[in-house]
Amino acid sequence: MREGSGRPAGAVNKATSELKFNLSELARQHTNDALDTLVDVMRSGQSDSARIAAATAILDRGYGKPSMTQVDNSTGHVITAFEVVADY
């Protein structure tokens, strides 16, 4: 590539950023239906894996995805289980 040609590093691609915005807005219009579907699958899905996947998706959206690993600085042990505590 020639020096100085193309879009500068870090510059926003206006065509795709507008498309992403429009798709995000369209997806948000279906948020309640999507959450209702996840809750329905969680409660009455035909397989354990479907119910677990739906429950996980709900928790991830409500609390964020947990870190893959976390280290206890006092012991150096890797923590693999997490407890989600809501403070409301």
Describe this structure in words.
- The structure is a single chain.
- The chain starts with 13 loop residues before the first helix and ends in a 9-residue tail after the last strand.
- It has a two-stranded antiparallel sheet.
- It is flat and about 55 Å long.
- With 88 residues, the protein is mainly alpha-helical.
- It has one domain (14-79).
- Helix 2 (31-44) crosses helix 3 (48-63).
- The protein is built from three helices and two strands, in the order αααββ.
- A hairpin with a 6-residue loop joins strand 1 and strand 2.
- The chain has helices spanning 14-28, 31-44, 48-63; strands at residues 70-71, 78-79.
Shape: flat
Number of helices: 3
The domain tally reads: 1
| Through-space gap between termini | 54 Å
| Rg | 21 Å
What fraction strand? under 5%
**Mind describing the biggest β-sheet?**
2 strands, antiparallel
Main sheet strand line-up: 1-2
**Topology pattern, helix = H, strand = E:** HHHEE
Structural class per helix/strand content? mainly alpha
Total E-strand runs: 2
Q: Into which percent range does the helicity of residues fall?
A: 40-55%
Low-pLDDT stretches: none
Quote the average pLDDT: 78
